[in-house]
Amino acid sequence: MKLRSFFEAGVYGLAANGGREPKGFEWHPPVSGDVRSPCTGLNNLANHGFLPRSGKNIDIETLRVAVKAAFNYDPNTFDNAFQQAVDFNLTTTGNPNTFNLDDLALHDAIEFDGSLSRNDIYFGDNLHFDPAIWGRTSRRLRLNDYGPDKKELYVTVEAAAKAAAARVADAKKVNPTFNASESQQMGSPGTTALYLVTMWDEDAGAAPKAWVRSFFGVVEIEWAVG
């Protein structure tokens, strides 16, 4: 595998990889008083200590260092999200140059309807991981199905796109206030691209199912029920 990232080191506790988490960046669930966002990627950074584990008072330089160190992305990858938080005056920190992760939950600013792992704000909670929503996405991606064909160990671009489209279709059916805004139209495919690129295996031309499952399910499930 050519991917050299946070995941290849086994930092999300993927026992199958036999890897160890980097010292100082072990996974810990949030504790009382910590906050998290609707974005699984950012939450992963906080759960591993690349961002403040509290999820609070994050400035642009901290975000850039975390993105580069953890995901091996260009450090400016999340600059636009940070700028949106500033432009929409989302921050509750008292400092316009910092934000808390849960500040990003303001609907239709950065957060959007049709999330792969969150319910829509219409139903009361667009912030926390929703096992039922993610369960349907997981089944569509066939994350727990493995067959004799090695390709069945991976999530392809086609499978990911179909799962994302199906989730949006579900939301439109049950949410009478579904908002197909610019935020939603950019955010939905963006979320899919984020997890695929982060965990991409160049040799396979797809993302390992085990990593996708851990990225969404294992990392956040304790926050959802804890």
TrEMBL record:
<dbReference type="Pfam" id="PF01328">
    <property type="entry name" value="Peroxidase_2"/>
</dbReference>
<feature type="domain" description="Heme haloperoxidase family profile">
    <location>
        <begin position="23"/>
        <end position="226"/>
    </location>
</feature>
<dbReference type="GO" id="GO:0004601">
    <property type="term" value="F:peroxidase activity"/>
</dbReference>
<keyword id="KW-0575">Peroxidase</keyword>
<dbReference type="InterPro" id="IPR000028">
    <property type="entry name" value="Chloroperoxidase"/>
</dbReference>
<keyword id="KW-0408">Iron</keyword>
<comment type="similarity">
    <text>Belongs to the chloroperoxidase family.</text>
</comment>
<keyword id="KW-0349">Heme</keyword>
<dbReference type="InterPro" id="IPR036851">
    <property type="entry name" value="Chloroperoxidase-like_sf"/>
</dbReference>
<protein>
    <submittedName>
        <fullName>Chloroperoxidase</fullName>
    </submittedName>
</protein>
<keyword id="KW-0560">Oxidoreductase</keyword>
<keyword id="KW-0479">Metal-binding</keyword>
<dbReference type="GO" id="GO:0046872">
    <property type="term" value="F:metal ion binding"/>
</dbReference>
